[in-house]
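Memo to structure team: turn this sequence into structure tokens by end of day. - J.P.
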Amino acid sequence: MKVSPALLENSLSEPMKAIAMVNVFSHSMLAPPPSALGPGTGCTAARAR
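Reply from structure team:
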């Protein structure tokens, strides 16, 4: 897995800042949300009822 140089440097010098960076990256909206919100809410599941 690729890791940014900024994250590697912060992990050595400022571990709490590095943890905060990981939290920001992991919760970012790089991908759109799923089209089905949960089991039974998709288009095919609604037609099957």
